[in-house]
Amino acid sequence: MTSKWLNHVFSAWQLERPRASLIVLFITWKFVLLSVACTSPYPGYDTSTRLLLPNETSDTKGQHIFGSLFTALVGKLTRWDAIYFAQISHRGALFEQEWAFGWGFANLLNVLDRSLFGPHGEVGSTAIVGILVSNISHLLAVLVLYEMSILIAIPSPSTTSSRVAFVSASLHIISPAGLFLSAPYAESSFSFTNFAGFYIYAYSLRAHNHDRVGLRDASLVLSGLIFGVATTFRSNGLLSGSIFCFDLFECALDLFTFGELAKNLRRSIFLVIAGCFTGIGYLFPQYLAYREFCTATDFQQLPLWCSRWFPSIYTWVQRHYWNVGLFRYWTISNAPLFLLAAPMLLIMILSAVWIGSRVDQVPLMKHQGANASRASIQDGWISPVGLASARRLAMPQLVLAILALTSYHVQIVTRISSGYPLWYWWLASKIDDQRSLRLVKWDISVEWVVKWMVLYSLIQAGLFAAFLPPA
To answer: In degrees, to the nearest 5, what angle opens at C-alpha 110 toward C-alphas 199 and 415?
Structure first.
């Protein structure tokens, strides 16, 4: 049986003013993580940051102590891919491999940097903007996750729903993505937009359940547009479009089962539009790269990927420069990285199976009846329409876990998983019910999962700030 201490910790914050409490918890956790980063060894294992940001990492003698801490912190957070993001945002993508980094995030930083610091700012100002955007986006993602959890919950005066919502948002604060959600990376911006897209989508299902067709259709299109924006931040946002494919399949089943051609055809049209918006978020940067590299006349020889049937610079760069591909990462030397990623992979897969095991409890939204109330009671806090929403969210999360296991640099799953709400709900419901996680023959206390998240984030913060792996 899980210890009650987690419930005591979360309940002490949550009941009176949950949103304000989440903000206080967020600020506290950021202070802890950034303190760890500030105390990490300087200048770190790699000197790339000093070459990129000489003003931010030079000798700070004579500066005010807070100025010294700030410039040091900027340098500590501009590590690994953050160096690419800062440089690309500052002067644009020049080389092939730079197109693998989120086009939307880089351009957002460029616009904000020019607005705040003028057109002649330094790379350091771009890095500062990236840090601000990441932290603000992380906070917004926390609040959106809380609101989405309330949206899919059973509307009742019971504190169970609000408690699960609060714990879910709190778990996102201490996500194992750790310092990546504070550095100039696209993870927190992706989490915010992906959560926002899921929120609007869940709202469209509720409107569909109440036969508010116009609101449903508008919400579907808006959710697809937001997923498209998320995809420009991180390409795995494309997976979120799979929920529209699920609904198209359901429309086809409804058509053959209940008829109603006009209703299902109308909904299918708006689902296709929403899916197209999501796809554009992936295809538009590819088009820009194709126009730059494959239609230029000043190249003696065009890049090899230009002649492929689908000339995607992203897939070419991932495969050619970083050896990403099916089972390419499955080597003996990478075994420790698979062990490092194993807890997050298990959490993502088990939480998807958790919601999948409740498929038979989710009635068709137009025909709920008594079964709907039974579904609500059996799951404790989530409403029937919320359960239908969560079931759809299992697909992109499960596909991401499988791709991370088979094709990606597997260790990145600890940070790219931060933008998927289902596993937070799963852990929060376990914490609320004081249940253990069943894994084959072993019962794993949720308390240990939360301790792992905190410990991993703290260790990772020290390693990241010192320019040490994993990244």
So the answer is: 45
SS3 string of 270-291?
Answer: HHHHHHHHHHHHHHHHHHHHHH
Q: For residue 156, what are the contacts with CB-CB under 8 A and spacing of at least 6?
A: none
Grade residue 378 by pLDDT with cuts at 50, 70 and 90. very low
- Amino acid letter, residue 263: K
Mean pLDDT of 90-119: 93
Q: Which residue in this structure is represented by tokens 């420009």?
A: 232
Can you give the pLDDT at residue 254? 80
Q: Which one, of 299, 279, 397, lies nearest residue 345 by Cα?
A: 397
Is 190 in contact with 233 (CB distance < 8 Å)?
yes
356/351 Cα distance (integer angstroms) = 8
How many C-beta neighbours within 10 Å does residue 269 have? 13
Higher pLDDT, 162 or 196: 196
Residue 111, Cβ neighbours under 10 Å: how many?
11
Structure tokens at 64: 């005010």
What is the Cβ-side half-sphere exposure of residue 188, based on CA atoms within 13 angstroms?
29
Q: What is the mean pLDDT of residues 14-20?
A: 79
Task: Report pLDDT digits (tens) over 109-138.
Answer: 999 999 998 887 788 899 999 999 999 999
CA 236, CA 232: separation in Å to the nearest integer?
9
**Pairwise pLDDT comparison (85 vs 375), residue with the higher score:** 85
> pLDDT at position 299, please?
63
Closest CA to 45 of 79, 8, 86, 14: 79
DSSP 3-state of 444: strand
Cα(314)–Cα(308) distance, integer angstroms: 13
C-alpha 268/C-alpha 2 separation (Å) is 45
DSSP E strand boundaries for 107-150: none
**pLDDT tens digits, one per residue of 327-346:** 999 999 999 999 999 999 99
